[in-house]
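Service request form, structural biology core

Requester: graduate student, group of Dr. S.
Request type: structure prediction, single chain
Budget code: on file
Notes: please return the result as structure tokens.

Sequence provided:
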Amino acid sequence: MAFLDHVLRVPAYGWKDEQGNLIKPSAGQIFNEFFSRLNVFKDRRNWLPFFSWLKVLCFVPFFLLFLFKFMSPWMLFAAFTYSMVIMGTHGTVWHHRYCTHGAYKFRNGFWRFFTQNLTINVIPEEIYVISHHVHHAKSDQPGDPYNAQAGFLYCFLADVTHQPIATNLSEADYNRVTLLMRHTGVKANTYAQYLRYGSYVNPGRAILSWILNWGFWFGVFYVAGGAALACTIFGAAGFWAVGVRTFNYEGHAKGKDKQREGIDHNVNDKSINQIWPGLVAGEWHNNHHLFPKSARSGFKPHQVDMAWYYIKMMNILGAVSTYKDSKKQFYKQYYLPYLASKAEANVKPTINPAMLEVLPSN
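Core staff response, request fulfilled:
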């Protein structure tokens, strides 16, 4: 745990107080931290959080053009499908199940690159992956970079305030970061470059990848449907880029105890299974916290898992060589014992309290 205790850059207000309790910063403290870490003039090592939000700002003109010029029933349908289903599913397939948890393996680098760039580039892998390992190790505890108990802003702005890696890691600890990232195909900075830029990824490579990805997809959508479709899809991607930052706050029940018996079987944190994220992105979050390395998290028949369908399809086509599926383990370890316990409770004889009054005392 020592490595995960300090791999992320600690916010100015800290993770916990002297008694070990979660620090819940005020909105002012969070905003101060947010804008301080976006200041590339103060410290060039702030470049990656700045870059992440620069992309979001670049989506704004496309979204406004969609909203006020190209809006139509068909464009609205395209925007909804791309933002909610395609972007959401890709985030689960790529960032969550592959980059972070290694739930499956690609046959070769081509299919990894194909899947990585299957949608418009939004989230830097480095910001997501390292912090998500910490999230699972410290879920809903002090040090969790998006602890829902600290409020909405604490989670919504976490990609800047809590998720970047620390800028003063030792060479040994930086090498551990590279081990967590190596399979993603994102090329690492040398340790000397890391000390200069404060990041795993090199700024030049990140910017080039962004330009090529956006240029390719804008061209594809422009050829397919002109400026209307291209602006609509890019606006939809921007909508998702903002909306996805609310997920962990909602997925951990806004920091409250909202788990339901027979639905949420992991009781070690506040994660819950939600219908909407499950249907559109395969993100059955409580199931995922039970088996984070599973390529499937929609275990029950009604739990549609679009991300799993993509991974399974790629396996059938030969693009994915191996995967881990924990469905059988879920049923054996959690769901069947739950059903058995409910059945046993229903057949146990009950005693009418009134009958106790006529029973003999001896």
